[in-house]
Amino acid sequence: MESSSSSSAAGLGSVDPQLQHFIEVETQKQRFQQLVHQMTELCWEKCMDKPGPKLDSRAEACFVNCVERFIDTSQFILNRLEQTQKSKPVFSESLSD
Fold first, then answer.
1. How many domains does the chain fold into?
2. Long-range contacts of residues 88-93, Cβ cutoff 8 Å, at least 24 apart
3. Chain centroid to CA 81
4. Separation CA 42–CA 52 (nearest Å)
5. Considering the domain boundaries, does residue 47 fall inside one?
6. For position 27, which CATH number holds?
7. What is the model's pTM?
């Protein structure tokens, strides 16, 4: 119950700035951990045929390529979303028209 009152207070801007910063940082950490988990799962499924005591050169190259493509794709999507948000009017402004 406490968290719902905190999040609603954050929307009103009446939360301590330090607490608000802490929440933002922790949210970013959580998002990053989710991305790492997604990347690990995706690349493992794509590159790992049969787990063994050593990583062969083909699997290693596959993992490197997979991680690089995942990062590139994530960055592209973030940049694209940022561009579309900048080009669209704010929701409240569009309501006044």
1. 1
2. none
3. 12
4. 19
5. yes
6. 1.10.287.810
7. 0.58
